[in-house]
Specification:
GO terms for molecular function: glutamate 5-kinase activity. By secondary structure, the chain is an alpha/beta fold. The chain has two domains: 263 residues, Carbamate kinase, CATH 3.40.1160; 92 residues, PUA domain (Archaeosine Trna-guanine Transglycosylase, Chain: A, domain 4). It contains 14 helices and 13 strands.
């Protein structure tokens, strides 16, 4: 690995490091992380911190029998967020800033760009951005769900060179090291495929929401943007010392040699499809030939409710996902056009109003 070219990194810290005993925040494991951040900044490396822990930090303030209540969990997040920020802030002698996000902030292109600009401005002025999902206001429809995937989205938005995901084990093993003594650490992963996901297993902590699977998902998002990605043991100071020395302390995921363009990456990995358009099989051939405009002739069906500007999934009738794209039509209008028997009407209508999908707003997906 070569960390000499790193100009900006994102480090993700989980709830088990922030509040290991669910009795409020503890600086026990955070000191070495804070020192790592300080040393990075001293070397001219900008740092963005994605920190879980608000729910775990606020847990001790509420009765045990009420903690399964959704409203109480949101209250735990609200109470714990201030304690978590205060804990981080006291470990630094430079200013920090709080950014609370929902998936709605990231999947909307205008708001996504606004987040990027805010992060860049903070970094340019020497302020450490500390980012967390806004658990107080999130719903199932609006949330990312785990900060592993959030950290990858943030790393892409921040144009980071490296993403460091802290875990409670040294990295990705070929089997669960907590239950198998013969588990072997994978120090290098060139391609993330089904075999890699099979090694992930489930969550290993009862404090956080993510497990090894979400860390693999995050790595997949990050490497496609050309970001060096590491899963390391966040409980040991040695991990951070090795990173600073240019050594790999855990599992290093190799970034794509030809990263996705920023807007295509956002469409593929961050924007959420609000509906689906099922197309004729021949549209797949058009995509392969880089003729990527969609007309009503190729539409078989329209599913879901979406508005102009929303992201939609384009797929074949057999379920094959072809692309994600920004729709220039609402689902209501698109259904009306597609249902017209007179194809001349549809063609004339589109000549006046423009294509259903334009080539600049489409991301072709790997066949799945």
């Amino acid at each position: 690995m070569n960390n000499s070219k790193w100009k900006r990194i994102v480090i993700k810290v989980g709830s088990a490091l922030i509040a290991p005993h669910k009795q409020g925040c503890s600086s026990h494991y955070l000191l070495s992380i804070a020192q790592f951040i300080v040393r990075c900044r001293t070397q001219g490396i900008q740092v963005v911190l994605v920190s879980s822990g608000s729910v775990a930090a606020g847990s001790h303030l509420f009765p045990e029998h009420e903690k399964s209540n959704i409203a109480v969990k949101k209250a735990m997040a609200a109470a714990g967020q201030t304690e978590m920020m205060a804990t981080w802030d006291k470990l630094f002698d430079f200013p920090s800033a709080q950014i609370l996000l929902t998936h709605a902030d990231l999947r909307d292109r205008e708001r996504y760009v606004s987040v990027r600009e805010t992060v860049f401005s903070l970094l340019d002025h020497g302020v450490l951005p500390i980012i967390n999902e806004n658990d107080t206001v999130t719903t199932d429809k609006l949330k990312v769900g785990d900060n592993d995937n959030l950290s990858a989205m943030v790393a892409a938005a921040a144009d980071a060179d490296a993403l460091i995901i802290c875990s409670d084990v040294d990295g990705l093993y070929n089997k669960n090291p907590h239950t198998h003594d013969d588990a072997k650490l994978l120090s290098w992963v060139a391609d993330i495929d089904e075999d890699i996901y099979a090694m992930a297993g489930g969550a290993t902590s009862d404090v956080g929401t993510g497990g090894m699977k979400t860390k693999i998902q995050a790595a997949e998002k990050a490497v496609s943007h050309g970001i060096d990605t590491f899963i390391i043991n966040g409980f040991t100071e040695l991990s951070f010392n090795m990173l600073l020395d240019g050594k790999n302390p855990g599992t290093h995921f190799q970034p794509f040699e030809k990263p996705m363009k920023e807007d295509v990456h956002w469409m593929t990995h961050t924007s959420k499809a609000q509906g689906e358009v099922i197309v004729e099989d021949n549209f797949e051939i058009q995509l392969d030939q880089e003729s990527q405009q969609l007309t009503s002739d190729e539409i078989v069906a329209v599913k879901g409710d979406f508005s102009v500007g929303d992201t939609i999934l384009v797929r074949k009738g057999d379920g094959t996902k072809l692309a994600k794209a920004r729709s220039n039509y609402s689902s209501c209008l698109l259904s009306f056009i597609a249902d017209q028997d007179d194809q001349r009407f549809a063609s004339e209508f589109q000549e006046k109003t423009g294509p259903i999908i334009s080539e600049k707003n489409i991301a072709v997906l790997e066949k799945s």
